[in-house]
Write a structure and sequence with these properties.
Strand content: 25-35%
CATH architecture: 3-Layer(aba) Sandwich
CATH class: Alpha Beta
Shape: globular
Structural class: alpha/beta
Largest sheet: 7 strands, mixed
Helix content: 25-40%
CATH superfamily: Vaccinia Virus protein VP39
Number of helices: 7
Radius of gyration: 16 Å
Order of helices and strands: HHEHEHEEHEEEHEEH
Distance between the termini: 38 Å
Mean pLDDT: 91
Length: 223
């Protein structure tokens, strides 16, 4: 399993080429974008939303385009990725940080988008990330995760044309959904779609909402 330090170093190395290859959401399938739109449509007006693993900011731009009223926060492990995001997303509050140790207060966001940002997280680390997403989510807060579906890992060599290697972890959507259900989330959507184009694996998605009754009183998102 690739260490966090190695993942950070790898994405620092490939950041510029990654951003050039994936500048926006045009690679996503219509089904993928429709699920993101559903997530966004369920958010209240003016909600504070975390793009957890924002990279260079392509999903921040999508969310800004779809819901300009949202208050967007971006977090990424790679300082180089955050540098690119800061240059391209002046509308967002951005920080370098670890998804297993999110630098935000309890109950401070109404939504968390983790779009292919858990693909290097093993089961134990995914549990830590789920803990953090639950902690920072306000009552009724939403999470949407996208990831590569399956079991085990695959080795990525020469990532984005650079001499770096990474382990990509496959996750079963049922197990991801169960992890969030165990932390007080109601699963609204759990699905897998077949691989398309050059995708080597099916893709998995989980949309869930933090149950108000399990949370108790909490501050309004961003309040």
């Amino acid at each position: 399993m690739t260490s966090r330090a190695a993942v950070r170093a790898a994405y620092d190395t490939v950041a510029a080429d990654y951003a050039a290859l994936l500048p926006d959401a045009s690679f996503e399938s219509p089904e993928d974008v429709a699920l993101i739109d559903r997530f966004l449509d369920l958010l209240p007006s003016g909600a504070r939303v975390l793009d957890a693993g924002c990279g260079a900011g392509r999903m921040l731009h999508l969310m800004r385009e779809r819901r300009p009223d949202l208050r967007l926060v971006g977090l990424d492990l790679s300082p180089q990725m955050i540098g690119l995001a800061r240059a391209g997303c002046p509308f967002a509050d951005l920080a370098v940080g670890d998804l297993a140790d999110v630098p935000l207060p309890d109950g401070s966001v109404a939504g968390v988008l983790a779009w292919y940002s858990v693909i290097h997280a093993g089961t134990d680390e995914l549990d830590l990330i789920a803990d953090e997403f639950a902690r920072v989510s306000t009552a009724g807060g939403l999470v949407l995760l996208g990831f590569q579906s399956g079991r085990g890992t695959r080795r990525i060599d020469r990532a984005y044309g650079h001499d770096v290697s990474l382990d990509a972890v496959l996750h079963d959507p049922r197990e991801v959904a169960a992890a969030f259900a165990a932390r007080g989330f109601a699963v609204l959507d759990q699905r897998e779609r077949l691989a398309r184009g050059g995708e080597p694996h099916p893709q998995g998605f989980v949309l869930a909402r933090r149950e108000v009754s399990l949370l108790g009183p909490t501050a309004a998102a961003g309040g």
